UniProtKB/TrEMBL annotation:
<dbReference type="GO" id="GO:0022900">
    <property type="term" value="P:electron transport chain"/>
</dbReference>
<dbReference type="Pfam" id="PF08122">
    <property type="entry name" value="NDUF_B12"/>
</dbReference>
<feature type="region of interest" description="Disordered">
    <location>
        <begin position="1"/>
        <end position="33"/>
    </location>
</feature>
<comment type="function">
    <text>Accessory subunit of the mitochondrial membrane respiratory chain NADH dehydrogenase (Complex I), that is believed not to be involved in catalysis. Complex I functions in the transfer of electrons from NADH to the respiratory chain. The immediate electron acceptor for the enzyme is believed to be ubiquinone.</text>
</comment>
<feature type="transmembrane region" description="Helical">
    <location>
        <begin position="56"/>
        <end position="77"/>
    </location>
</feature>
<keyword id="KW-0472">Membrane</keyword>
<keyword id="KW-0249">Electron transport</keyword>
<protein>
    <recommendedName>
        <fullName>NADH-ubiquinone oxidoreductase B12 subunit family protein</fullName>
    </recommendedName>
</protein>
<keyword id="KW-0496">Mitochondrion</keyword>
<keyword id="KW-0999">Mitochondrion inner membrane</keyword>
<dbReference type="InterPro" id="IPR012576">
    <property type="entry name" value="NDUFB3"/>
</dbReference>
<dbReference type="GO" id="GO:0032981">
    <property type="term" value="P:mitochondrial respiratory chain complex I assembly"/>
</dbReference>
<keyword id="KW-1133">Transmembrane helix</keyword>
<keyword id="KW-0813">Transport</keyword>
<keyword id="KW-0679">Respiratory chain</keyword>
<dbReference type="GO" id="GO:0005743">
    <property type="term" value="C:mitochondrial inner membrane"/>
</dbReference>
<comment type="similarity">
    <text>Belongs to the complex I NDUFB3 subunit family.</text>
</comment>
Amino acid sequence: MRFTSVRRAPRANLTGFNPKDLAAASGAPANDPWARREAWRYSGPFTRWNRFRGSFPGLGIATVAFAAYCGYEYMFLKDDHGSHSDPHH
């Protein structure tokens, strides 16, 4: 079964009020009394990057430790179960 989209004309606005025009005309307030109190949320230790970085504590150390263990296992821990050179098996 194939879905099709139905395109309709925009509905007529009975009141004549357009919220998009109002938002564009109003713009930002000239003097926002709360701007200074809200600025700390987006600066210093609370920037977007710092909040993301703190989301996964220990991930970098764990990744390095896992890679080091995989390298150690590959280099030094050889599996001898497949070799037929040992006659006393």
